[in-house]
Amino acid sequence: MSVGARAAAGVARAWYRILLRVHPSGRRGYGPQMAATFDTLLETTSKRGMLSVAVLAMKETTGLILNRHSARKTRRARRLDALGQDLRFVVRSLAAAPAFTLLVVTTLALGMGANGALFVVIDRIFFRPPPGVQNVDTLTRVYRRFPRRPFDPPGSDFGVSQWVSYPGFRDIEAALRPAARLVAYAQYAPRIPVGRGESPEMTHALWVSAGYFSLLGASAPALGRYLTDEECRVETPTNTAVISYDAWQRRFGSSPSVIGAQIELNRAVYTIVGVAARGFSGIDTDAVNYWMPLGSFSTRPSWYQERDGSAVRTIARSESMTPDQIASVADAAYHAGVAPREAKTTLVAGPLLEARGPTPFSNELKISTRLAGVALTVLLIACANVTNLLIARSIRRRHEISIRLALGISRSRLTGLFLLESLVLSLTAAAASFVVAQWGAAAIRQTLMPDITWATAMIDYRLAVFAFVIAALTTLAIGLPVGLRSGRTGLTLSLKSGSRDGGVHRSRVSSALLVTQVALSIVLLIGAAAFIRSLLTAEATRTGYETDRLLLVSLRFDDGGFRQQETAALLHQLQEPVSGRPGVDGVALSGWRPLSGYASNSLFRPDGAAIPSMGELQPSFLYISPGFFRTSGIPIQRGRDFSAGDTATGQRVMAVNRSMAQAIWPGDEAIGQCLRIGKATNDCVSVVSVVEDTNRDGLIDKAGGRAPMYFMPLSQGRGEFGTATVAIVRSVNPRSTRLLADALETDVRGLLPRDVYATVTPMRDTFANQLRPWVLGATLFGAFGLLAVTVASIGTYSLTSYSVSHRTREMAIRTALGAAPPTLVRLIVRQGLTPVVIGIAAGIVLALLSSQLITSLLYQTSPADPRVLAAACVTMGIVAVAGCVIPAWRAARIDPIVALKAE
Amino acid sequence: MAKETDDADPDDFLPLSPQQFEILLALSDQDLHGYGIILDVSDRTSGKLRLGTGALYTAIARLVTLGLIRETDQRDETDARRRFYALTKLGRRTLAAEAARMEELLTKARQKGVRPAPSKARA
Description:
The structure holds two protein chains of two kinds. Chain A is α+β, with helices and mostly antiparallel strands. In chain A, 51% of the residues lie in helices and 14% in strands. Chain B contains four helices and three strands; from the N terminus they run αβααββα. In chain B, a hairpin with a 7-residue loop joins strand 2 and strand 3. The interface between A and B is medium-sized, with 27 and 22 residues.
């Protein structure tokens, strides 16, 4: 069976099932048999190819719609016969114009496919319940809502979290019983390593409390058993695990001997006791592969006793309580037991699907909702384009229509004929759009959420329903204008004038449609240009570090442990051999990765007076080795670098940056001053140098590159951040930094013990997360913008060439009267571009009006930025001119004698 | 679903629609499922009457309601969704009555001198 036939059969099957719901017999319990019979018909037909399947599907679905139950020639039956004739006619006439049909179907399929792809993504995030979970409506997530903390992203007055402490969970659970059940689950990180080695498989795994599987309604395990309540008691940790069906297939080749096997997760060994029901993969967007008892979550004995921790997430199931009731009971119970610092926290309820809960949208979610609007716009453009093509076609067929009218066809049937043509076109396009949607959804998913394994297949009946609805709307959108127009065709006029005058005046509707297309395309182009501009601006941001030259070397231990002293010692050892390597222009160490967050401390003047807190601009500190400033490319303004002379027992010293010097000693020389750090009684630390300002948070800096900072030598380091955790390597040539990274990784491996791994990352790569929103926006908006422009250019081209082909006579006369080819080209291009120019103007207005939809996603730019506008207009202009020039050039070469004789 | 009774008068159901007639005819010598009926009718009429599933099951539903056919307990091994249908006694009598009615019509037509067209007979 061909791929096409299979795809067509899939679509037909989906549509048939939808129609069954409206068919009287289907509703009266005959549905399954009818589906079975139809499936058999499909199976036997699909051997004969896609076209046969399409014909069968068309017949069967129309049969279902019109319910052909009586052979007596009722009015309905007569109408059905007519429909059959019309259908045959439409299919034949479309087959006679393959280029036209292909163009229309492709245009529509791209538009529909874009929507299908977005539908798959949005449906998954916002609407589809996770597979294998029963009665999703009675499940409630419990959230903590607390006043915004200084480091929370701006935009909302509240922060939201699903995490509560384990004792908090127990309090809530006890209060809710028996009206509602509550389970808790914990995780270390979104993904944890399976097994050991340098690059182990990373997977989503959860530690769950008793009753997790039964609360969610997971079906019986495929093999073995689920975790018992006894195993899940936190006081008696048990290292057992249930694995997902998927992991069983992938990792264990569906072997039944998996029960009793051992697996290492996050560096602890678990014994597998069961394989979860097929399809069950937890309740998060990312499919869960391993479930362990909550007790084995941490070996730290007190973790489940800490009241102010936030160790677990919870989910409740109740048939009798509303989510709000659950939240208020939970809130009371929670506050009775927790520390007073949680007093301002309220517990609120949310549905199972997290995207519909109280958590503010992530950038990914924001972008995907905007993209849904973009996809719809692309479809509108496609519809406008196709309508134009159909109108052009109907004008070409005026003669035929007039004859049909003269022979007595009713105007309603004529309109119906055009609607039917649109229906055939959009259904075919809908089938083709499945391929586009599948490919597009995979691409969008990969771009937006690369780290997530989605639990269910991407193509299913929901997409089929969606495609059907879109196809129905498209049918009306493209069929009605043409159908209504043709219904009005003046009989005598068009018969008399024949085809000669058919296209002298370009229809106003066509021009309006072209204006619409161009305007919408411009909106999308402006969006894409704004994102690209944001990305370029953000990438070009100066950090104060010589970002392009720097490599960061960090270490990992095979057992996953974090060993401060050992790491520092190894890094110190590496410093000398690495700095001697060709291509390396210096190595320095620091307490943690620069430009990746910060720590701050209270500061006191020498007399013990506290320096008032500066909030988000509280001076932050970094411990560094001598040579750090030179290696990083941070100029020392005045004073000296740290040196070997700054020993642990010697006078404590610090370097401050310009903003700190200005903030604390405005107008005075900072060098020579001293500050007490942490406590008023601590040793006074002397300032020995002032250095240039740098960013604090990364590429995008909340402090705008003016955060007060101070640096202290690692040799005098104390506390958690006082030892080296990362080495900074300066490359001789910024262009070879990336090459050097690969070479260094190999070199360093030879210098390290076998159970320690080194990661060498170009500093620029560590900004990827910060750049992600704009990379996403630029990629996705860019792709859709390109799609829109392609469709719009087909529109300009086809409209111009159509209008030219109908002005052959006029062009011939003009040439005969002496018009030179360049004059004709100018004439046609000017006329062709008029709607484009109007469209561009309208598009700019539209874009400016809707600009606040994306402004929050942009960086230091807006859709109103002249450079953004110019980029979009120039792109559109070039495409439009190209669309006009080719037909114009053709027209200018018309031989007047041939053209006039042809009439 | 109507009970299988012998007291109903087959004439009450006449005339049958061509689809109904063909379905009853298909079930006259064997129990069939929907797809089987489609094949049988299509074979017997040399492809001239091709029942769509919509029409077929509308007719089946009607015939079941009238008590002319009934669903059997037989199940298809390859597809559990399929249901087999059998003629009821009433259905068989109705089929016979319809055939008799048609014969009578034909006889009357012949008496009036109507002969079927020699080349193109309608199914």
